[in-house]
Amino acid sequence: MKAIVNKIKGFHLYTFGLPRRLYDWVLSWAHKKYSSAALFVLAFSESSFFPVPPDVLQIALSVSKPKKSFFYALIASIGSVLGGILGYFIGLFLFDTIGSLIINSLGYQAQFNSVGDLYKSYAFLAILVSAFTPIPYKVFTIAAGFWQVGLLPLIAASIIGRSARFFLVATLIHFFGPKIKEFIDKYFNLLTMIFIILLIGGFLIVKYIL
């Protein structure tokens, strides 16, 4: 376990201080008149370079307007898939400049190298798992371009995985409403720890099972 933790030590944004501030900042977008556009931009950018997942804003918007929860899931899905395509082309054409800067600044170099090994045999499944789980999706989209995985498999896996993730959130909010947001606000630190555990588990699944 220690070796795995050391392997993902670059995920420094998920310590107990900075994520709370990032969470609150992103959450504040829900009160803006351009909130739907903000969700699209967040989902798009998170797939290629931004560290905060769009689920945060999606939950806030869906709780405020439960009847539109599936609409917000659709926005997040489309934005995320398109952002993944951008990440792919960054890895394919701009890795030496933009791509390497993103990977190194976020501390994902070790994970990036591991993804290259996975793509030799399990590209589609690896992308699918990363699209659905808390694994940093941007690492996989940029790596897909760098190691020249087919664009169509990337898009297909992204559509399946990202849609499943965001529509699952929408479904939970549809049935449980504001309780979901209240739970996140109350147990954010615990959820952060769970996130890290899931992150480790996700890499183990991709590396040793798929």
Quickly describe the structure:
This protein is mainly α and 210 residues long.
* Low-confidence parts: 1-18
By DSSP, the count of extended strands is: 0
Residue share in helices? over 70%
Order of helices and strands: HHHHHHHHHHHH
Structurally, the number of domains stands at: 1
Largest sheet: none
Estimated structural class: mainly alpha
Number of helices: 12
Radius of gyration: 16 Å
Distance between the termini: 19 Å
Mean pLDDT: 79
Q: Which geometry do the CA atoms define?
A: globular
Query: β content, as a range?
Result: under 5%
Describe the protein's architecture and organization.
- With 210 residues, the protein is mainly alpha-helical.
- It has one domain.
- The chain has twelve helices and no strands.
- The protein has helices spanning 2-7, 18-27, 35-46, 55-64, 69-93, 95-105, 109-118, 123-132, 137-146, 151-176, 178-186, 188-209.
- The longest helix has 26 residues, at 151-176.
- It is globular, with a radius of gyration of 16 Å.
